[in-house]
């Protein structure tokens, strides 16, 4: 004879305070697990969307990132003349040469806190290679001027990056923000873009670049393009697929976020299981006579065991569903942190997915069932005669 689901649900309603307390612990566990993985997924998406498999990135051979790369301007001509480069309708190679610098700016809300912001020196080809970039406020910066456009992810969040404000790239060299741009939710939205020659002049980098980006005829053209630029060891150049570059510079931060989330989630899982166990132990103690009556009426130990476990399952499911809802709501929040692989401030969203939410819910249910097992075993082991006499 099995205990009805209705009876188990009524028991939970009668002890709603302890039920809600246990469910809250499960909700917290599910929220932490889901939110940390959504945050890592958002970082991956923001960084990886900036790269394309049919684009190659040329940098200094021993540089980890663009900000730490310095190559001679002649690398641009080498890349433009290399085999496999796509050309436009006028026969012009689709190649962009850029320089990247870092400035330290204070937070708009807390002027005592500073962070690093990446400034990219660009020219017209930089925009042609990224047609998804568009100005959403203000206007484009004029070539050769000390004007800047700022990505939506950091605009207004740091001193000098709001429309009409200015920031100092080098002493006595200010750049005024004349436009805000979107770039398909990629890492470029966490950058400020200025004229290439203006940046190189401000930093005395004339004749040097950070990187050259080349659009290839196809993904298969990469090996021949790479060989043409790396065969001369004296040039000191390295070539990577753009997708591989962004995967490399984002993997460490994403693993760190997932690791922190897993450690916190592991800790919370013990708390959630313990909370469920305490709640169910309390419920079993309060219902000792009631459970004894069930046993006297002919319900087997197995029926009582599964009845209590079902209650634990319902508590875990309710708490997990609430935790999933809280985690899903974080999709409206944008998080910003420094990617220490590049020194670049990156703004990115929480990115929910069915796989992440379902995995966190499953972990919450397991924790709830684990916490309810021992109380359920105790309930199933009650001696009806002794319980009725006590």
Write up what this structure looks like:
The chain has 11 helices and 14 strands. The protein has 390 residues and is of the alpha+beta class. It has 2 domains: 5-48 and 250-384, no CATH class; 62-235, no CATH class. Strands 1, 3, 4, 5, 6, 7, 8, 9, 11 and 12 form a 10-stranded mixed beta sheet that branches. Strands 2-10 form a two-stranded antiparallel ribbon. α2 packs across α9, α7 (242-286) packs parallel to α10 (354-380) and α9 runs antiparallel to α10 (354-380). The longest helix is centred in the last third of the chain and has 45 residues, at 242-286. It is elongated and about 85 Å long. The two termini are 26 Å apart.
Strand content: 15-25%
User: SSE order, as H and E?
Assistant: HHEEHEEHEEEEEHEEHEHHHEEHH
Helical content (DSSP H or I, runs of 4+): 40-55%
Calculate Rg over CA atoms: 30 Å
Task: Tell how many strands the DSSP assignment holds.
Answer: 14
| SS element count, helices | 11
The description of the largest β-sheet is: 10 strands, mixed
Class per helix and strand makeup: alpha+beta
| pLDDT < 50 runs, ≥5 residues | none
In short:
The protein is of the alpha+beta class. Helix content is 48%, strand content 21%. It has helices at 5-14, 16-48, 74-80, 124-128, 196-203, 222-230, 242-286, 288-296, 301-329, 354-380, 384-389, and strands at residues 55-60, 71-72, 95-106, 114-122, 134-138, 147-151, 166-170, 173-182, 191-195, 208-209, 211-215, 237-241, 334-339, 344-349.
Jot down its keywords.
390 residues, alpha+beta, 2 domains, 10-stranded mixed beta sheet, two-stranded antiparallel sheet, 11 helices, elongated
């Amino acid at each position: 004879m099995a205990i009805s689901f209705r009876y188990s649900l009524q028991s939970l309603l009668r002890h709603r305070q302890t039920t809600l307390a246990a469910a809250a612990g499960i909700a917290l566990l599910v929220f932490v697990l889901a939110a940390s993985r959504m945050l890592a997924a958002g970082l991956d998406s923001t960084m990886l969307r900036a790269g394309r498999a049919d684009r190659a990135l040329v940098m200094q051979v021993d540089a980890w990132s663009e900000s730490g790369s310095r190559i001679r301007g002649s690398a641009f001509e080498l890349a433009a003349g290399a085999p496999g480069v796509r050309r436009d309708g006028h026969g012009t190679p689709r190649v962009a040469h850029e320089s990247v610098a870092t400035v330290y700016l204070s937070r708009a809300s807390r002027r005592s806190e500073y962070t690093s912001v990446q400034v990219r020196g660009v020219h017209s080809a930089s925009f042609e290679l990224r047609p998804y970039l568009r100005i959403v406020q203000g206007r484009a910066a004029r070539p050769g001027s000390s004007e800047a456009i700022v990505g939506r992810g950091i605009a207004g969040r740091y001193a000098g990056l709001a429309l009409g404000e200015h920031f100092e790239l080098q002493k006595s060299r200010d750049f005024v923000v004349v436009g805000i741009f979107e770039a398909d939710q990629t890492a470029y939205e966490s950058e400020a873009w200025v004229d290439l020659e203006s940046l190189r002049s401000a930093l005395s980098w004339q004749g040097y670049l950070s990187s050259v980006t080349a659009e290839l005829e196809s993904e298969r053209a990469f090996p021949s393009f790479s060989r043409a630029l790396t065969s001369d060891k004296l040039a000191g150049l390295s070539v990577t697929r753009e997708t591989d570059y962004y995967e490399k510079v984002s993997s460490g931060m994403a693993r760190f976020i997932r690791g922190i989330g897993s450690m916190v989630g592991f800790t919370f899982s013990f708390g959630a299981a313990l909370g469920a166990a305490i709640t169910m132990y309390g419920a079993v103690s309060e219902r000792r006579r009631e459970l004894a009556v069930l046993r006297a009426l002919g319900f087997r130990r197995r029926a009582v065991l599964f009845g209590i476990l079902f209650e634990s399952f319902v508590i875990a499911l309710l708490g997990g569903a609430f935790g999933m809802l809280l985690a899903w709501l974080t999709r409206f929040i944008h998080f910003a942190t420094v990617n220490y692989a590049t020194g670049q401030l990156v703004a990115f969203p929480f990115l929910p997915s069915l796989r992440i939410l379902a995995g966190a819910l499953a972990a919450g249910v397991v924790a709830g069932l684990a916490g309810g097992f021992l109380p359920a075993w105790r309930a199933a082991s009650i001696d009806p005669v002794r319980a009725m006499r006590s």
